[in-house]
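Late entry, adenosine-5'-triphosphate complex.
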Amino acid sequence: MSPPVIDIQGITKAFGDREVLKGIDLAIAEHQAVALIGASGSGKSTLLRCIDLLVDIDDGDILLDGEVITDPSVSPVAVRRKLGFVFQAYNLFPHLNVLDNVTLGLRKGTGMSAAEAEESALKMLARFGLEGREKESSSNLSGGQQQRVAIARAFAARPRAMLLDEVTSALDPELVGEVLRAVRDLKDEGVTMLIATHEMSFAREVADTVGFLHEGRLVEVGPPEQVLEDPQDPNTQRFLRRLLEARRV
Amino acid sequence: MEATGPRPDRRAERAAAKRRRDRRGLAVAAVSTVVVIGGLIALIVTSPGWPDVRDTFFNATVFKESFPDVAEGFWLDIRIFIVVELVVLVLGLVVALVRATTLPALFPLRLLAVLYADIFRGIPVVLLVYLVGFGIPALDPPQGLLTNEIFLGGTALTLSYGAYVSEVYRAGLRSVHPGQREAALAVGLTEQQTMRHVVVPQAIRNVGPPLLNDFISLQKDVALISIIGVSAEAFRIAQIQSSTDFNYTPLLCAALLYLAVTVPLARMLDRWDRGRVR
Ligand SMILES: Nc1ncnc2c1ncn2[C@@H]1O[C@H](COP(=O)(O)OP(=O)(O)OP(=O)(O)O)[C@@H](O)[C@H]1O
Ligand SMILES: [Mg+2]
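Prediction complete; structure with ligand written out below:
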């Protein structure tokens, strides 16, 4: 059997003396989508950034396709080219138009020619419903459109896995749907994904596995119907109950 | 019940009222400008010394005579300004980028960059022009660039403004949101590519107005090189001409030429700033 695409083994991370990740184990098999839920500050973003080597871990290992990527001898650039990252705040490049946002990584990162990069970027933009917007400045787009550009940008180089960090939480409610549709589209294609999210119904729908992160520990991992509907850990129970109450108010 | 919508003629009524208000505003502005400026002029031309001042500062004949020479000197100023400005833009950026590095191996370079910026920002430009302009020739270097006053004066200006501008760039680099750097790394760029294609372009865009502001100061400070004997420079020419026939009109002539460049730059700067706020 082939190894998991992403294999997180006992990683820890502290900022100063604040321990944010306290020993995380998690494996994501090919074509699987794992949803990461947990309260604000529980360490979801930090975990995703550790995988993309945007943050150095203190202890443990992360493997990508069976190879350790958290070794100082591994080039972080090569690893990041195999992963796609989508940020909560989109982080589009404001000095570049929509098309160049997508082609920059392709041209500099994959050695594609400008023409190839453009062709491939245009296809990617069309796929996420952004046909005809390629020459526009990204600031002209709505939040939902910007986030779809960001997804196209992250996915353009066909990464081995996509890391999505609360990609809808900066959006107005009426724009959430179009972005979730884009993620669902990736899932339908069998893209391996790790998704930090606050959208429980979405997690239930697309995730094969849900992990609940509590104060730097993955206290519960399992299929969505189990973790979200019949949680065993008291912290998960409390988190979901609060969420439900908040919705009712 | 019938809906009570706005009366159809309300729109026209409001537009007419707005037009009346605008017209009145314009009229008030025009009248008050005429009164204030006219009053100032009246105050000046009725003062007892005015006839003398008019002859020594605003003498049309002298103006016509001196203008070609002063203008030619000014053309030299402009050329020096352009060359110095281009070098300053590059030097400032290099210094700022060196200071932004974190590699331990580059520590000596970083130290040099910090020393450079601190020292040359701390010395008044005039003093630096003197130090370079008289200090280097005093070392008796072979004839050539190192004894050329224009080169030495330009070097002094470059060193001084390079230090100021490096600080402007540094502020610009800091102003780029850290998320931009992360996004660039995440799409697979190297650290250098991230700087070059994502951080630096945005940093420069963010500091356009303060850079232009330094342009304006530099343009004026070019006149300082006259103090080390660059006799072809506009201010110097005006000064010489004024002292030969005790008439200061050539100086006014030089001032007008400076204004002809700095005022449009200042307007441009304002427009740019306003455009960015939008
Ligand atoms: N670069 C950093 N320096 C210091 N502390 C940090 C840093 N990044 C994150 N933290 C801290 O680590 C903790 C976990 O942050 P993280 O962003 O991973 O949480 P999160 O689960 O993504 O929360 P949210 O739902 O609000 O996004 C927080 O207390 C945060 O303040
Ligand atoms: Mg987060």
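Chain B has one domain: 62-277. Will revisit in the morning.
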